[in-house]
Specification:
This protein is an alpha/beta fold. The chain contains ten helices and ten strands. Helix 1 packs across helix 7 (161-174) and helix 7 (161-174) crosses helix 8.
């Protein structure tokens, strides 16, 4: 269903002079405020379970260095695109609240906002709704907003070298005095996680299950590619009972590892199901017609 368009073993986070030492030097001295990884065993597999150690998932852990750096630089507002479903925006909302940085989220308009979008709003994010045909259109508008207001733009998937760098350090330090995994599985969307893991664990073989988009050049790195057989918003055929795992996202990687993996393989569970929200659909005016820019006009027409 999803296509791998990558040619070769290109990892776009290793281009130029970037390597393991580059990222370790970048993050030297920074200490995460999150608990260490929780690793559990199930079905003969080892699971890094971020549903336990991170309240809103791995991207909050990996994004903390970026938020700390922005705060020290005097950045007062961040802008990001939050699809109907996705933990990156939730993680940013959590981090911005923690670091007292305003967060503006450009969200695709719909008749009813999604639970993930409403959770971001509950954490304090300011929503700007826009009717779009595809996420790149929303991304473009977020960049225009950032240029007009001075907000700091963060790319989709938290695809930022400081997020990669923090992830590299965390994984590298965790496995520094432990046996490295021989094989590790995860789902892939923008590929930030798998590229990070590949840098930190250069001798591990990776298996990525695509669940939401086609893979572009540099996204995959040296990982083996598989495409899940269901659409992004459909539930996995196998949702684990042993740990909290998002049924339409990480569970799809869990399903394929159980089908095609080997005993002793590792699985990276990015997040559990998102916490509930007290914000109701009727509390959010999320519908916009085509070319309706009322959420943006007061910022872009200054």
């Amino acid at each position: 269903m999803f296509i791998n368009k990558q040619d070769g073993l290109d990892n776009k986070d290793l281009r130029g002079e970037k390597d393991l030492e580059y990222y370790l030097k970048m993050t030297e001295g920074f200490k995460s405020t999150f608990e260490d990884f929780k690793v559990i065993q199930s079905n003969g597999f080892n699971i890094i379970d971020e549903s336990q150690a991170c309240e809103v998932g791995y991207k909050a852990r990996a994004g903390e260095f970026l938020m700390d750096t922005l705060k020290k630089r005097g950045v007062t507002e961040v802008v990001y695109v939050q699809p109907r479903k996705g933990f990156a925006g939730i993680s940013l909302s959590y981090l911005c609240k923690k670091y007292d940085i305003a967060l503006t989220l450009v969200m695709p308009a719909s008749k009813e906002s999604s639970p993930h979008q409403r959770l971001c709003i509950e954490y304090g994010a300011k929503p700007l709704f826009l009717r779009v045909a595809a996420m790149p259109n929303a991304n473009s508008m977020a960049q225009k907003y950032a240029k007009a207001t001075g907000a700091y733009f963060v790319p989709l998937g938290l695809n930022h070298e400081m997020v990669v760098g923090m992830g590299v350090r965390i994984v590298h330090e965790y496995f520094k005095n432990r046996e490295h995994p021989k094989r590790m599985w995860s789902v892939i969307s923008t590929g930030v996680l798998t590229r990070t893991l590949q840098i930190a664990l250069p001798n591990t073989e990776f298996f990525n299950v695509a669940v939401s988009r086609n893979i572009q050049q540099g996204d995959l790195g040296r990982a083996n590619f598989m495409s899940y057989h269901k659409a992004f918003n459909q539930q996995s055929d196998d949702v684990p009972n042993e740990f909290d795992c998002e049924s339409a996202y990480d569970s799809k990687g869990w399903d394929y590892m159980n089908r095609y993996g080997l005993p002793g393989d590792w699985f990276f569970n990015v997040a559990g199901n998102a916490p509930g929200t007290t914000v109701k659909p009727e509390d959010v005016d999320s519908y916009r017609d085509w070319r309706d820019l009322k959420d943006f006009n007061k910022y872009l027409n200054k």
